[in-house]
Structure formats: C-alpha cells, structure tokens
Amino acid sequence: MPHLTKSKFTSGLTCSRQLWFKVHDPIPFDDPPPGSPMDVGNIVGHGAHTLFPGGVEVTERPWEHTEAVTTTATLMADADVPAIFEAAFDFDDIRIRVDVLERLGGGQWGIREVKSSGSLKDYHLWDAAVQLHVAEGAGVNVGSVELVHVDTSYVHAGGEPDWSQLLMAEDITTDCRNMLADVADEIERQHATLSETAPPDVHPTRSRCQSGFGCDYWDRCTAEMPDDWVQLLPSIRGNSIEELADQGIHAMSDLPPGYRLNGTQQRVVDATLSAEPYVSPDIGNALHNFGPPAYYLDFETMRPMIPVYPDTSPAEEIVFQWSLHHLSADGEVSHREFLGPINEDPRRALAEALIGAIADDGAPILAYNASFEARVLRELADRFDNLAEPLRAIERRLLDLLVPVKSHTYFPGYKGSFSLKTVGPTLAPTYSYDDLEGVAVGTDASAAYWHMVYTGEDDPEIREALLAYCGLDTDILMAVHQKLIELS
Ligand code: SF4
User: Which of 10, 206, 218, 242 maximizes ligand 1 atoms within 8 Å of its Cβ, making it the mutation to test the pocket?
Assistant: First the structure.
C-alpha cells in the first residue's frame, strides 16, 4: 500500500484523481520560486521557530522518513528539548511532519501547525486533524492543537519582522477532535483510491481545478478535450459541465437543442463552431469616448503576508509599479514607466511620478478591468492628502477597454476568456507573453518584487523582467484598442 502524507491527504480532499496522480504518476517537484506563496510559507515556518526558543529541528529530508522518526523519538526522550521542529510520525500508512511539537509538561505535547495565511481556513482544520490522528496513533499524548498564523492587525516597525507580534496562535483542539471520525473515514477512502490501478474518473472543471492553489495536472486532465469544450463557455457552472459530461457531452457541437445559454455564451458557441469572429455593429459607438488621443495604464501591486515597509500590515495592498503608454491623435506613441526602489515604500514617489506623466488635457486613460486601477488610485488619494485631487482627477478619466471587448467582440482565439493575456495576442498577434523571462503574470511580478525588498537584494535582471512585463501589458492594451477601432 503506498503511504499517504499530510499534503497528499489534503490533495485527496480536493480531488481523488489528483491524489492518485501524486502517488502513482507524479510531476517532478520544483523548488518554489522566490517570493511565491510556498516560499513565503517556508519563511513564516522558520520565523515561527523563534517563538519556541531552544527548539530543535529534525533535519532528515522527506525521503529519510524512518530516520526522521527515530530522531524525533530521541528528541522527545530528552527532557531538555522544549520543542521539536518537523517532528516525524508514522501511523495508518500516513507519514507526517509536524511543524512544531511543543513539550507541554505532564507528558503532554502540543501540535502547532504554522500557516502564512491571515485566518483559519477549513483545510487547515483537516491538515491539523490528520496530524492529531497520526500523532495519537503513534502514541503521542497530545494536549492541544493550535494553528499559528499571521495576525493581519500587526503593524510593521521596519527591519526584521517581529515574529512574536506577526504570528498569533488559535486553539483548534476541539475542532480537530470533533473531526477525527471523518478523518478516519477519509483515510480509508483515500487508501481505496490509491489501491486502484488507474486514476479515478473526475471531470475537470475550472471551478474545481483552478481555484485555491490550482492543480498541476490540469494539462494532463484536459489534453483530450475538444477545441469546442463546453468549459470555454463564459460563466458556465462547474456542476453544469459535470452534468453534461455524465451524459457524454464535452463539445459545444454536441449540446442538446434548446440547451439554455445566455447571450455571451450563445455568441461564443456561434463564433467557435463557425470559426468566425463576432463583432457587434455597435462597436463604433461603444468606443466613442476612448480616443485617441489616449493613455494606457497598468499597475502592479503586492499584498505581502510578511510586510516589508514601516507602518504597513500583512496583506495590505502596496502598488509598486506602473506602465503608461500614450497614443496621440496623429498616431505618435510614447511610453513612461515607474518601478519602485527597494529600500523605501514606493507609493508617494509612484503617485507623484504618475501625476507628472499624465497631461492635464482630459484625454481618456484606458485600462483593462479598470476597477483595479480605480481602486489603487483611490487608495493613493486617501493616503496622500496633498496628492488627492490630481489622483482623483486621473481616476475620473479612467475608461475600461474590457467593456467594449466583452460586449462587442468574440474571437475563437479568446478560448472562452476575456483576460488581456488571451484577448491581446488574439487581436494583436504580433504580441506575445510567451517570450517574457521570469515574470509572465501579475503574481510573478508581486512575488519577484517582494522578494527583492525582503532580502534587500536589488536584482537588475528582475527589474528588467518587471519592466518588460508591465510595459507589454500597456503596449498590448494600446494594440487592442487600435484593432477595435479598425474593426469598427
Ligand atoms: S485537473 Fe482537476 S480533475 Fe484533474 S487531477 Fe487536478 S483537480 Fe483533479
């Protein structure tokens, strides 16, 4: 019987097919990129060690589990060790490493599960409850279970994080004890899944497979789906896809006559099956106020769970970069950009530079999904009183290019998505995000910038990658606008 681990057990809760793949046909594991959620989780895990002075780490690697169990037993027998980090146990064909096993006295131990999130989530309880099941099964007298997570009310004073203030403990002993029967049932179910010789049939849907942390097996599970897969219908619910799949229907071309679709979905079906783009006759009117002349604006922000600037809190949104293209009425293009320094909060300098870059000429400022840019501008205006008026004036000039794209066009190349990453290269095929190195999506940008600030290591290559990424976004935005004008 292949053994389970804590992370495989959590995968199995999400999807039994994912669990089967992780055990029988895994994708090789890469080190998490610097600044990624997993990397931040590791940093928080180490930060939590400082809350247990004198604690000793079990350093054996995951594949040295038997040795790790032996080391754990030795440390538990040593009364001078107040806490054990990465304590290893084995029971019921499940191997676990406990983030912190704290000696409580009276022969009792505390399980401390460390998470970099700002609150208790359902899956944290499952995660901790399976550890309770295994530790008690292995003979540990567990007195309490706590989740140690980030306290979002913490205000950073600058310098190294004060881990004793940044992290808080929440007692979840009763919740975990109440879940033990369900945990035992779930383990039995997961072992049954693992004893199968083929992966279980689970219909992939975006709502199941791409929410939360996503699933690495998406490409594998969707490789055989037709080009007109019903998942490409905007806003289709996951259970509708599953109901259709249960009837053997995966393709739009197989949808039963009279199947209920909204207007956008019908447009997607028509354009996909005919391979002909849809362009509404009203698109010219929809673009009436959009210029040129026009500006094209994009921000990059981060919400670090480990704050890096004084007077900021975990998960506070910090804007650190913008790109601004300008297209004049006679077709002349210019570009300005800003990327914050790593040694100070970039927001005031960023706001001042933006105000200086936009002429007071009333030209529209186009963004894609502009509610994000509007929110960032409002937050800057609220923060800096003496910049509030020009920032609010910029916000008033924002127009959202997503609106005419979504309401007045559909090209088969959108593949069911109206994101700039698919719409841009479809309408402006000379542009591509594929050639970007290191930073290719917004989450990469946030992670890369945060990591530079946290480590204090300014990296010219990362700066270049950040500038290239954000600059491409506004360049593509401008190209999409021009294409829409051409279509109109
Ligand atoms: S892509 Fe979806 S169906 Fe496939 S293994 Fe992952 S979660 Fe399960």
Answer: 218
Cα dihedral across residues 399, 401, 406, 409: positive or negative: positive
Where would I find the H helices in 15-121? 16-24, 37-49, 65-77
Q: For helices 6-14 and 122-137, give the axis angle rounded to 10 degrees.
A: 140
Using a 6 Å cutoff on CB, does residue 231 contact ligand 1?
no
Pocket lining: 156 vs ligand 1, CB cutoff 6 Å: no
Instruction: Round to whole Å and give the CA distance between 20 and 190.
Output: 9
Ligand 1 site, residue 17, Cβ cutoff 6 A: yes
- Give the chain's largest Cα–Cα span: 81
Q: Residue 193 in contact with residue 186, Cβ under 8 Å?
A: no
253 Cα–ligand 1 center, Å: 24
Do the beta carbons of residue 23 and residue 95 sit within 8 Å? Answer: no
Index of the ligand 1 atom closest to the CA of residue 221: 4
22 lines ligand 1 (CB under 6 A): no
Q: Specify the pairing of strand 278-279 against strand 83-91.
A: unpaired
For 458-485, the pLDDT digits (tens) are 999 999 999 999 999 999 999 999 999 9
Set out the domains of the chain in order of their start, with CATH numbers.
4-194 (3.90.320.10), 225-275 (no CATH), 284-487 (3.30.420.10)
Report how far ligand 1's centroid is from the alpha carbon of 2 (Å).
20
Taking the CA of residue 202 as reference, the ligand 1 atom at the shortest distance is 3
DSSP state of 116: S
- For ligand 1, the distance from its centroid to the CA atom of residue 38, given in whole angstroms, is 20
| Calpha distance 318→309 (Å, rounded) | 10
Task: Kindly report, residue by residue over 128-144, the tens digit of the pLDDT.
Answer: 999 999 999 999 999 99
